[in-house]
Amino acid sequence: MSSASATLSNRDARRLLLHLQEFTTPRSRPLKEGELYAIIRRLGYVQLDSIRVIERAHHMILFARNRHYRPADLAHLMERKRLLFEHWTHDASVIPMDFYPHWRYRFKREHKSGRAARTRASKNVMARARHVLGRIKKEGALRARDFNDGKRARGSDGWWEWGPSKEALNYLWRTGKLAVSARESFQKRYDLIERVIPPRYLDGMDAPDDAATVAWKCAGALERLGFASAREIADFWGSVPVPDVRAWIDKNLGSGLREITVAGARGRKPRTLVAREDVFEQAKAVDKTPSGLRLVSPFDPLIRNRERTSHLFDFDYRIEVFVPQRLRRYGYYIFPILEGSRFIGRAEVVANRKEGVLRMERLWLEPGVLLSERLRGRLEAELARLARFSECGGIECDGALRNATSG
To answer: I need a labelling partner for 157 at 20 to 30 A (CA). Which of 240, 271, 277, 330 fits?
Structure first.
């Protein structure tokens, strides 16, 4: 990109991003069915993850934006109302159903590339796919385990190897031949798309062409990011190649898009990024700063791009789930702590449902953050909310507060 002439301050950049990511709307507002759907639509999607330390990531993402949210609310929207469908963005996610026509672009790319099959060289996936489709057509929605051809891998710590039926199910799902109708204990139930996707979204006559979908995805990503590089726009939905994004940017610069400089936090170098032409008006219109304190899921879209988080918030974070224990700096599953418009620390918090206790094991505060009585009270209040959310009766945090480290 060429040198940009206008600079978005770090303060305004953070405020705009937090607004676009649903952190400026009062978290205590009533959560009606339509409002939950609206939150997900404004976010674009919500990533799914199986790890349940307090609650699974998708539930933590939504609870961070509304205290009244409960896990059953998401299942209701997806499995009963059919307002959401599950598919791939950068990872498995729940997505507003009216976006479904744009996923035809992804289905075609997956089929063409062969990436939908876990092993591209698999010789039997197509034959197995016909068998899988036949059973589902006759019996209804089925899970991978219903086919009984997976084997537990040695040394796999409980993970299952991919048998031919699971590979076939994944292929059919990734290419749009099957849909996820529900999850049971986080296991997908696959069914024919016509039993899951409302008919109006399956009408090929109204399907957007590839160029329209690329433009829609680029514009939608930028709408939710506020300002971004071509790579960040491409990564948002996880399916548009970077060269196609750059071509879209070049086509629209000066006609809906502009280049700006975004200031970094505390001495971080400014970045030249692309934004909508009205980005400064957007930022000026944000009249609210996020209030309160909340623990943020490691998979929250606000912090998904670690370099962007570091640049804007001066907060260096990585999830250490897949880091060997001896190499972890903090721990297996650590929650960033957002207070207002800055990250003030991180905490290790675990819900022990057998004991009925939500326990904060350790607390690290960012440089310059002091554990005042006010901050202590806000932390305890948020832990109490999380305890109720995770169906725990109480909290334990005295040891972590007493031994909190700073800097």
So the answer is: 330
CA 68 to chain centre: 19
DSSP designation for 100: G
Q: How far is CA 373 from CA 162, 226, 295, 340, in A?
A: 52, 36, 18, 17
Q: Which residues are registered as beta bridge partners of 338?
A: 294, 343
Among all chains, which residue has been given the structure tokens 């009408």?
Answer: 203
CB neighbours of residue 364 within 10 Å: 20
Q: In one letter, which amino acid is 387?
A: A
Kindly state the tokens that stand for 92. 């498995």
CA distances to 97, 356, 357, 396 from 393, rounded to whole Å, are 36, 5, 6, 11
Alpha carbon distance 318, 336 (integer Å): 10
Sheet holding 46-47, edge to edge: 46-47, 92-96, 84-88
Q: What's the start-to-end Cα distance of the chain, in Å?
A: 36
Mind listing the pLDDT tens digit for each residue in 51-105? Answer: 999 999 999 999 999 999 999 999 999 999 999 999 999 999 999 999 999 999 9
Rounded Cα distance between 338 and 327, Å, is 25
pTM for this one? 0.93
